[in-house]
């Protein structure tokens, strides 16, 4: 029998999979705040399995937001698509590439694939990322186009893993909507969406979307509860991923 802290359970609801880590301790949480966001950064060529974003280009300027730098966390959302969709595996992400080379970690359970028309979506995180507009590099196995979007948060629980990201939900349903619930409302949500048709209007905060490749988007929710994180116009095959972020 597995130890209690290693138990997981999966629920299938309307083609969605909800990953619920084992419960942690109690206590009050700080309110998670957004530092900066940066999105729509695209690697458009199939057949290449590496992509570097130079510092000062389209990546985030970590720590430059209005909410300070304490207990910060950088999240990178990787959305793979194109003619070889559904085949990208083993991504590796590095922040401050060529400098301190900080390795990012995949959020537990934060991965979904949906074949050639649906693509692949991953989320990676880094606690206490180096400050500034620095270089980012990703490598992977596969031949896909890649869109990378970033969000930096502060007042995040620095434990990492399932403690800092207590709810992860994925979906391969048609369209671009995902429902995720979390409490307390001090937490924030971030979602990544990969679809075969264009994105238009989001119901929640649109961090950024790119309709020039295989239509990728990321959004955040400022007041979590029971929410439809994003509902973009259009339909089409795709895959969606949403994560709750716990306060310090």
Short description:
By secondary structure, the protein is mainly β.
Strand order of the largest sheet: 1-2-14-20-16-18-17
Contiguous low-pLDDT stretches (5 residues minimum) are 1-26
Beta-strand content estimate: over 45%
Number of strands: 20
Task: Explain what this protein looks like in three dimensions.
- This protein has 248 residues and is mainly β.
- It has helices at 115-118, 161-164, and strands spanning 8-13, 16-21, 33-43, 50-53, 61-62, 73-81, 89-95, 102-103, 105-113, 120-127, 132-133, 136-141, 145-154, 168-171, 177-181, 188-195, 205-210, 216-221, 226-231, 238-245.
- Strands 1-2-14-20-16-18-17 form a seven-stranded antiparallel sheet. A five-stranded antiparallel sheet has the order 3-13-6-10-9.
- The longest helix is centred in the middle third of the chain and has 4 residues, at 115-118.
């Amino acid at each position: 029998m597995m130890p209690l802290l290693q138990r997981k359970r999966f629920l299938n609801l309307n083609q969605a999979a909800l990953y619920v880590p084992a419960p942690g301790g109690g206590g009050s949480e700080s309110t998670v705040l957004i530092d900066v966001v940066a999105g729509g950064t695209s690697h458009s060529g199939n057949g290449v399995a590496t992509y570097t974003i130079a510092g000062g280009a389209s990546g985030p300027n970590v720590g430059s937001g209005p909410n300070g730098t304490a207990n910060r966390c950088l999240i990178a959302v990787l959305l793979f698509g194109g003619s070889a969709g559904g085949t990208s595996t083993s991504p590796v992400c590095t922040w401050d590439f060529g400098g301190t080379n900080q390795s990012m970690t995949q959020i537990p359970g934060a991965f979904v694939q949906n074949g050639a028309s649906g693509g692949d979506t991953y989320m990676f995180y880094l606690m206490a990322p180096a400050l500034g507009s620095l270089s980012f590099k990703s490598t992977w196995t596969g031949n896909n186009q890649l869109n990378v979007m970033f969000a930096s948060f502060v007042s995040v629980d620095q434990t990492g893993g399932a403690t800092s990201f207590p709810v992860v939900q994925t979906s391969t349903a048609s369209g671009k909507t995902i429902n995720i619930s979390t409490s307390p409302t001090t937490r924030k949500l971030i979602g990544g969406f990969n679809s075969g048709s264009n994105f238009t209007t989001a119901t929640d905060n649109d961090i950024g979307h790119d309709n020039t490749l295989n239509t990728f988007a990321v959004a955040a929710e400022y007041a979590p509860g029971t929410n439809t994180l994003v509902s973009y116009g259009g339909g089409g095959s795709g895959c969606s991923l949403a994560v709750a972020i716990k306060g310090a």
